[in-house]
Amino acid sequence: MENKLCDKCVRWLCGILFSVFAFCWLFFFQQDLLCAAYNKLFYGIESANVLQHHNHMFISSLLVALSLSLVITGRNILHFKKGLYACNYLLSAVFLGAITGYDGDSFFGQSSTVWIVTAVLAVVMVFICKMVASVPRSDYNDRPRTLTGNLLIMCLLFCMVGFLGNTDENLHRRLTMEHLLSEGEYGKLLEVGSKEEESDRYIDLLRAKAMLEVPFESNPAGSGIGELLFSYSISDPISLSVALNEIPDAQAYLASRLLAGDLCGFADSIELSRYKILPQYYMQALVCLGDSSAMNMFPVQYNEELSRYKSFNDKVESLGDEPEKFLANSTFIDFHSTYYWFLRFRAGNHN
Asked: How many CA atoms lie within 13 A of 54 on its CB side?
């Protein structure tokens, strides 16, 4: 009677642990990935639009239930009990990892190497558990050993899910941004990964599109990009410049000239009379040129930026004839969010 009660407790423990992990994995960590995969799967089917972002809880719960149903199959095949009962969740863990492998193109984006490693780990785990199960054991400290064994196996299975699932931060960040852009949440989009140094050309463009929609004072529409552009990490300035140049918008064109380091083209294209306050990166570009029109129209702002530009040049000159990489790293903390730093070390580069 006591053994049956213990077995029942173990089953409940494993079931609760796996259910909580699976739901958190799907609902919190893989939300945008699952929604993107769902939208691609049912693209063009109007009746499927009822299951969108706001019904993600239903989708997550359904997938958790499907993964738990595989425990029955695992138990019938593997026949593990008590301290090794958690190993019956092997198929459920593989299923959970497999369905979250979407890479933006393929629903199962795992490489062949990932599948081979997973298969080897699964075989090794089952083999070791079978060996442990075949060794006679006393009833001494049976409950602590049972609890420890199941917790250890569950941790290994959770790691397997993470290994199989897509944990690419940039992909998840991009999918979140795409959703926010479609919802018109431009401010929230710009908050996503704002402190991260990693980016890619898709993220760069999504941020730039959001900046073009953010209002800045009473200036022309889209001029927010001139205030925000270089405060974020940019992975490929040239690609972003080309992409912005294809957008039929005056502010996008000005930003593309800054990214390409084409100060003359920028100065020839900007109409200073349209601005009440000049966006900081536009002003910084004009300070680099020593533009007299900007100095006359915005004297206070111009002098502030001129002082900052001189500080940057003084810092660079104080470092002597060091390599460019050393100069860039040495001035990064104080000046990396200025156009001065970008123009000297990044403009016209692909990385």
From this structure: 3
Tens of pLDDT along 52-79?
545 788 889 999 999 999 999 999 999 9
Write the CA distances from 119 to 15, 62, 160, 318, integer angstroms. Answer: 23, 26, 10, 57
Answer yes or no: are the C-beta atoms of 78 and 87 closer than 8 Å: yes
Closest CA to 207 of 178, 239, 183, 238: 178
Contact 63, 99 (CB under 8 A): yes
Computed on alpha carbons and rounded to an integer, the radius of gyration of the chain in Å comes to 28
What own/partner pairs with CB < 8 Å and gap ≥ 24 does 152-155 have? Answer: 153/84, 153/86, 153/87, 153/89, 153/125, 153/129, 154/14, 154/17, 154/18, 154/21, 154/86, 154/89
Query: pTM for the full model?
Result: 0.83
Q: Which helix (H) or strand (E) holds 133?
A: helix 112-134
The whole-angstrom separation of Cα 167 and Cα 153 is 21
Contact (Cβ atoms closer than 8 angstroms) between residue 141 and residue 83: no
Reported as a single tens digit per residue, the pLDDT across 131-180 is: 998 887 666 566 788 889 999 999 999 999 999 999 999 999 999 999 89
Question: Phi, psi (5° rounding) for residue 103?
Answer: -115, 15
